[in-house]
Amino acid sequence: MRTRIAALTAVLFLLLAGCAGGGDGADDGRITLRFQSLAWQRESVAANKELVAEWNAAHPDIHVEYVQGSWDSVHDQLLTSFEGGEAPDIIHDASDDLADFAYGGYLADLGDLLPERLRADIPASSWETVTFGDGIYGVPFLQEPRVLIANARRLAEADVRTPTVERPWSWAEFREVTKRLSGSGRYGVAWPLKEPVSASLNLSLSAGGQLFHRGADGKVTVRVEAGDEVVPRTIHDQVNTDRSASPTTLGSGGSDTLPGFFGGTYAMVPLGFSYRQQIEQQAPEGFEWRVLPAPAGADGLTQGVSPQTLSVARDSAHKEEAVAFLDFLLQPRNMVRLALGDWMLPTGQTALRDPALRTEEDGWAVGTALAGHLRSAPAQSVRGYAEWKDKVATPAFQEYYSGAIGAGELRERLEEDGNLVLARYQR
Question: Which of 43, 173, 206, 241 is the one with CA 20 to 30 A from 87?
Fold first, then answer.
């Protein structure tokens, strides 16, 4: 009996050892890295999978496994995987989702692991989006400015000045233009503000808005100043005073506005740069559209962005190998492929100079010209931002834009209610 028990124990031990070694290739000497990608457009998924295949062909001892994730559920899914010890080695996310993960100790500090080539090629303004405290917790690699997608024929018919990066519309001029483009059931602009907070805050940087202010003690408070009011007031007045912005799109996503845009109901739609792909694919034959820079304020064309990022889990047993894969994935030629697949801009300066990203076709040249004006989104390093956004700012902005509350109540809720939320994260 003792002999049989010993034999069974030995078999069980070997089985368990085999299972444990299967995850990272320890049984055959091959390392396996799990790369969770959030690419979702067909061209983007294809580009990512092609690059993974190229890496695997060139690195037989370090195999990268492609894992498909989803933007819709990434935060909760990552939190569950971190807490359960099942996080992927390489994590695709957005910089405005990293703060709590970085401060919570779930992500590896890449400061001493990143190759100098990569650190030098991506500008400091982009690295700010992934720097929390003294650590760097991701690599920002794709970004997109907000632009105006305009019906070229409607602009020509109204005989309005076409803005350029060198001579953009001011926010006041933009408001006047949308008045001229409105009437007879048609609107100058449709604001798709189902998620109003990031659009409001990021565009407000052009007017000198900041909203979040960090004191000498390192704590952040919400304070609404004159620059923070320009963009929200413009949107509010277009909807409620001028009737130049459609009230029905305030609760819509960007894609929801495209049928009305194609049908002539809306002359312009403020959208992320990547929406050009949907427009190019879905626009009816003969429809003429243009990419215009967003309006400028006291600080010019400056606007906030939250780049897409690649991070490494702190619990990964193969951090150096993971960073080596990131270095390959983000070589300039590969950055261009990823940018073209997602219709976005690379953060890398070498890739940004590629002729394929500077053509006038589909507005690429407008986007690359705006790249130098992009800054870290105001909320990047604010702990508790997600709760502040969901519980305080989103409903407050939605009610203000619809006309249900005034500017005074918007200010009060953002500041008083918002600071109560943030205080819980800064004790």
Answer: 43
So what's the pLDDT on residue 18?
Answer: 38
pLDDT of 103 above 80: yes
pLDDT in tens, 394-420: 999 999 999 999 999 999 999 999 999
- Half-sphere exposure in the Cβ direction for 236 (13 Å, CA): 18
Residues 6+ apart with CB under 8 A from 282: 258, 262
Question: pLDDT digit string (tens) for 346-381?
Answer: 999 999 999 999 999 999 999 999 999 999 988 888
State the chain's mean pLDDT as an integer.
92
At 261, the amino acid letter reads: F
pLDDT given for residue 27 in this prediction: 57
Mean pLDDT of 241-257: 97
* Residue found under tokens 């009305």: 260
Output the 3-class SS for the chain.
CHHHHHHHHHHHHHHHHHHHHHCCCCCCCCEEEEEEECCCCHHHHHHHHHHHHHHHHHCCCEEEEEEECCCCCHHHHHHHHHHCCCCCCEEEEEHHHCHHHHHCCCECCCCCCCCHHHHHHCCHHHHHHHEECCEECCEEEEECCEEEEEEHHHHHHHCCCCCCCCCCCEHHHHHHHHHHCCECCEEEECCCCCCHHHHHHHHHHHHCCCCEEECCCCCEEECCCHHHHHHHHHHHHHHHCCCCECHHHCCCCHHHHHHHHHCCCEEEEEEEHHHHHHHHHHCCCCCCEEEEECCEECCECCEEECCEEEEEECCCCCHHHHHHHHHHHCCHHHHHHHHHHHCCEECCHHHHCCHHHCCCHHHHHHHHHHHHHEEECCCCCCCCHHHHHHHHHHHHHHHHHHCCCCHHHHHHHHHHHHHHHHHCCCC
The span from the CA of 348 to the CA of 310, in Å, is 14
